[in-house]
Amino acid sequence: MPKLPKEHQFYDVSDYGRPIARIIANSLIKTSVTPIHVTIGFIISGLLAIVCILSHQYWTAAFFLVLKSILDAADGELARLKNTPSYTGRYFDSVSDFLLNVLFILTLWVVTQDSLLYAFLAFIGIQLQGTLYNYYYVILRNKYDGDTTSRIFEDKAPLALNGEKQSHVDMLFRLYRLFYGLFDKIIHQLDRNAVNAHNLPNWFMTCVSFFGLGFQLLIIAIMLVFNLANYVIPFFALYSLLIFVVVPVRIFINR
Questions:
Q1: SS3 state of residue 191
Q2: Report field, pTM of the whole predicted structure over 0.90
Q3: For residues 97 and 152, which has the higher predicted lDDT (pLDDT)?
Q4: CATH topology of domain 11-253
Q5: The pLDDT of residue 147
Q6: Distance between CA 212 and CA 129 in Å, rounded?
Q7: Which residue pairs, CB below 8 angstroms and at least 24 apart, start in 79-84?
């Protein structure tokens, strides 16, 4: 089951691992492996990438970064195939992504001995990019009856779905709000009228998908392979300025 109806699906450059993710998910349908187990798998992959970066084994680090992106898609695929959507899985995924992003930037800062200010700006930028992408994507999914586990406004803990505990949902929701609440507010303030947008064309969503976490990790992987580790942090600090191009474009096409 895709996240969007076929006529509203767009080419998502950050979702390059989806074909392999589907193969992985399909191979796990009849097993006892749950989406949470797959999420734990991408956490392990991310941590292995960090160990490799610290050891300057950049090709291996790139492999684990890409594997992390693939498994990040596979957990949702498995949830849809097994028809076991959960808010526990949704928030656990997001919280894990946030913590890994912190560690990725800190690791690159340690290895490159770059400016701590640049590292901070790069992290803020990465989070704002991903939040903007998810903001538009979730609006689109809610508008066209797609997957609705993610909500446009995460202002209160949702009721637990079948098979999950409310206490787990509440705890992970609080962590989600702690980590993402400020970024959600910033993006909403930048484009508060997006929720009423009558048109989010496929080409626009494809452009926005360059801000997706999968593509961010791919950029890091490529830069590591080409021995450009010293440029990763400055790149993401500057790349975030494109947010101030994307938002006006969205407003213009819905004027």
A1: coil
A2: yes
A3: 97
A4: Four Helix Bundle (Hemerythrin (Met), subunit A) (1.20.120)
A5: 59
A6: 7
A7: 79/35, 80/1, 80/147, 81/1, 81/25, 81/26, 81/29, 82/29, 82/34, 82/35, 84/34, 84/35, 84/163
